[in-house]
């Protein structure tokens, strides 16, 4: 595939396979990812995504309202029973396919990171590869989920342990590693049979959204991985919802 004259400030459209300027209308239609499909923003609350090469507004990302946060949680809740009951070996097959898709699309992923964050392409590829290492680790989930049994830990006492899915997990990630840190979170969580809601940084959300599409392409069922965009209001709504069972967070106090 022919590269653009300058990487920074361009984005690779995975719809057309063409490089387009980041200020192009083709490149500025962002969305949420709920129940396995793109969901447009409602209510008119948006954040601005800047082109780090020029400082200009490149696109606008919709901020979820309370209804869309609830929709994402209900989607994850509905998907949990079947996904958690799926044998680990079948979940591992999804992770193997997901790993292969990331490898096949790593140049596109790096271009998305570069176009919104400003990393060089080599740096963006490198950080994506570090995230990919966690996906590789998650492929071994059938072994990692094995329980333990120990005889005679005390007089006439045996002990055993089992590993079970937790439920709905939420990940809140920062702007500095839009591929690596989400990949540190959701692959292991979903491989363990949980469902996941990712709230990426509103400064560079395109890469996490693309990862969600690749996860579905790998065979991830609808509702297992959801991505909603927003600011502190969305974060607070996720943190305080009693249906959320676990939270992973990387960021600062204002978030």
From TrEMBL:
InterPro entries: Ald_DH/histidinol_DH, Ald_DH_N, Aldehyde_DH_dom, MeMal-semiAld_DH. Gene3D superfamilies: Aldehyde Dehydrogenase, Chain A, domain 1. GO terms for biological process: L-valine catabolic process; thymine catabolic process. Residues 47-254 form the Aldehyde dehydrogenase domain. It holds the Pfam family Aldedh. GO terms for molecular function: methylmalonate-semialdehyde dehydrogenase (acylating, NAD) activity. This is Aldehyde dehydrogenase domain-containing protein.
């Amino acid at each position: 595939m022919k590269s653009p004259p300058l990487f920074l400030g361009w984005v690779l459209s995975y719809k057309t396979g063409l490089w387009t300027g980041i200020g192009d209308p083709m490149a500025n239609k962002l969305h949420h990812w709920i129940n396995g499909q793109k969901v447009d923003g409602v209510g008119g609350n948006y954040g601005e995504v800047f082109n780090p090469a020029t400082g200009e507004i490149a696109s606008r990302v919709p901020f979820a309202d309370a209804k869309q946060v609830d929709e994402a949680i209900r989607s994850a809740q509905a998907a949990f029973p079947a996904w958690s009951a799926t044998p680990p070996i079948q979940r591992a097959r999804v992770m193997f396919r997901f790993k292969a898709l990331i490898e096949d699309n790593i140049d596109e992923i790096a271009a998305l990171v570069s176009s919104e964050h400003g990393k060089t392409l080599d740096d963006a590829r490198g950080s994506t590869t570090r995230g990919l290492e966690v996906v590789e680790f998650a492929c071994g989930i059938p072994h990692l989920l094995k329980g333990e049994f120990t005889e005679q830990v005390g007089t006439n006492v045996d002990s055993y342990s089992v590993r079970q899915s937790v439920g709905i997990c939420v990940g809140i990630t920062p702007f500095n590693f839009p591929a690596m840190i989400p990949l540190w979170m959701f692959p292991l969580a979903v491989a363990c049979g949980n469902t996941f809601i990712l709230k990426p940084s509103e400064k560079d959300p395109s890469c996490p959204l693309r990862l969600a599409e690749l996860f579905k392409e790998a065979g991830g069922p609808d509702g297992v991985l959801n991505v909603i965009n927003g600011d502190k209001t969305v974060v607070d709504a996720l943190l305080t919802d009693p249906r959320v069972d676990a939270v992973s967070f990387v960021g600062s106090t204002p978030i």
